[in-house]
Amino acid sequence: GINAEYGKQWYQRRVRGKMGIDINHKHDRKVHRTEPVSQNVYIRLLVKLYRFLARRTNGKFNQVILKRLFMSRQNRPAISLARIARQMKNKSREGKTVVVVGTVTDDKRIFEVPKVKVCALRFTEGARTRIMKAGGSCITFEQLAVEAPLGQNTVILQGRRTARETNSHFGAPGLPNSHAKPFVREKSRNHEMARGRRKTCGNKKKAKCHSPP
Question: For residue range 141-150, what is the model confidence (pLDDT) as tens digits?
Fold first, then answer.
C-alpha cells in the first residue's frame, strides 16, 4: 500500500531527474562552408594561403576571398570582359586591379578592351589574349597575395548568379505577372497549365472550389 506508492514516487523522481529536455534537432544543419568541397589541388593551396592571410591581417578583403574560394561553381559565375569594362569606367576605379574569384571570359560584342590588370582563378584563351593585347596583365591569386596582401587598390567583381538557363524556368509559367520560361513550346492554357495548376475554379473539383458556408 503506502510503501508501494512511496516506491513509485521515488522511482518517478529519479527517472525525471535523469531525463533531459527533448530538443528538436531537425534545424541543426549548418549550411555555411568551412572548406571547399572541390578536391582541386590549386584551390586547396589557395585556401591555405588566404586562410593564413585572413587570420593574420585585419582587413576584410582576405576574408571575402577565402569565403568565395569555398563556394560552389554555381556561386562563382564567370564574368565577361564586357562587364569588367563597364564596371571599370568609373573614375574612382581607374588604375585598380580587378579581382575575380572565378573565370574571366571573352565577349565578342565589344571591340575595345580597356587596359586593366585582372586577377582571376582562370582565364579563357580569348580573354587572356585580348587583355594582354590592350596592354593589361593577367595575374594569379598567389601573385596578388605578394602585391596586395591587404587588398590595396583592388576592386572585387563577380558575374551574375542568375544568368543560368535554369533560373529562367523558376516560377510558374502561364500565371498572371509570371515571366517564368516554360519547358514546352509556348505559354498558353494548354501548356503546363493542366488540372490543378490554374488559379480559376473551372478545372477543379467543386468541393474544393466552393468556400464553406
Answer: 999 999 999 9
Residue pLDDT, tens place only, 106-139:
999 999 999 999 999 999 999 999 999 999 999 9
Q: What is the pTM of this model?
A: 0.75
DSSP bridge pairs for 79: 104
In whole angstroms, what is the distance from residue 128 CA to residue 118 CA? 9
Residue among 89, 143, 95, 93 at smallest CA distance from 119:
143
The DSSP annotation for the chain comes to: -HHHHHHHHHHHHHHHHH-------TT----S-SS-S---HHHHHHHHHHHHHHHH---SHHHHHHHHHHS-GGGS--EEHHHHHHHTTSGGGTTPEEEEEEEEE--TT-S-----EEEEEEE-HHHHHHHHHTT-EEE-HHHHHHH-TT-TTEEEE---TT-SGGGGG-S-TTSTT--PPPSSS--BTTBS--TTTSSSSTTS-HHHHSPP-
**Residue 157 backbone dihedrals phi, psi, to 5 degrees:** -125, 160
Measured distance CA(54)–CA(65) in Å, rounded: 9
